[in-house]
Amino acid sequence: MKPLAITLGDPAGIGPEIVEKALRDLDVPVRIFGKVPQPVRYGEISGEYGRIALQAIDDAVDAIERGECSALVTAPIHKQSIALAGSPFPGHTELLAHRAGLKRYAHDYAMYFDSPSIRTVLLSVHESLRDAIASIDAEDIAALARLTSRELARLYGKAPRIGVAAVNPHAGEGGRFGDEEQTIARGVAMAEGIDISGPHPADTLFLAAREGKYDVVMAMYHDQALIPVKTLDFARSVNVTIGLPYLRVSVDHGTAFDIAGKGIADAAPMRYAIEWAARHAVN
């Protein structure tokens, strides 16, 4: 296979350490993008380090677009550091989508998490819980269902069974605890030709998915998805940006500035991300 393009992320974080540790135990062709200036100021929010991280991403995607690398594996970047470097994007997902010309979240691209226990795709990402609930939209739900079905069929060879999470306790209890479920139900009905059902109470839906009833859960907001994923399989879960013209995979943790430079960062999540990318990369 062509090499994976691996970015080191923010040099003040644990990215360079976990990439180095992970590659000691793997026999996978890779190209590394990024650098660690010496001496490095571990744990520091810095526009300089943000620029280094952004340049590594640009260089890695350039290599993929030239056909030199097969897929992208990203180490964590720091949102404040890339903002100081002039980036208007809150993270990898939005930055990479913009570069690829993808404009509408849920319609053109989305954040998806894959683990051995459960898989989940997010209707909204980096916004407050109040805004995430207010923004629930039937057309977005239907569009995300179509995007998820298409992209997971590419990854796994068959269209997934999608279970859609409710946002209120007991799926709103017939409107007693909120009426957002009416909008969610309209979105599910609009997703014609997709194997989809819901809204289901979120407190049991992830269990049903883990037991095999659904292939992927559509979550209404960030933490609704990430709490079960990280609790069940923190070291064996990956963040995938679906919709991109290439495969992009990341660990599901941050820069861990509090332990950066101490040599104690656990490389298991990065090792799993690299292995997962190598299994699913298309040359």
Can you tell me about this structure?
It contains ten helices and ten strands. By secondary structure, the protein is of the alpha/beta class. It has a ten-stranded mixed β-sheet with strand order 2-1-3-10-9-4-5-8-6-7, with helices on both faces. A hairpin with a 4-residue loop joins strand 4 (110-114) and strand 5 (119-122). Helix 1 packs across helix 10 and helix 6 (138-156) crosses helix 7. It starts with a strand and ends with a helix.
Outline:
With 283 residues, this protein is of the alpha/beta class.
Q: Report the major sheet.
A: 10 strands, mixed
Q: What is the terminal separation in angstroms?
A: 6 Å
Indicate the overall shape.
globular
Tally of contiguous helical segments: 10
Number of strands: 10
Q: What low-confidence regions span 5 or more consecutive residues with pLDDT below 50?
A: none
What is the helical fraction, as a range of percent?
25-40%
The proportion of residues in beta strands is: 15-25%
What structural class is derived from the secondary structure elements?
A: alpha/beta
| Cα radius of gyration in angstroms | 19 Å
* Multimerization state: single chain
Q: Secondary-structure element order, as H and E?
A: EHEHEHHEEHHEHEHEHEEH
Mean pLDDT: 95
Order of strands, main sheet, comes to 2-1-3-10-9-4-5-8-6-7
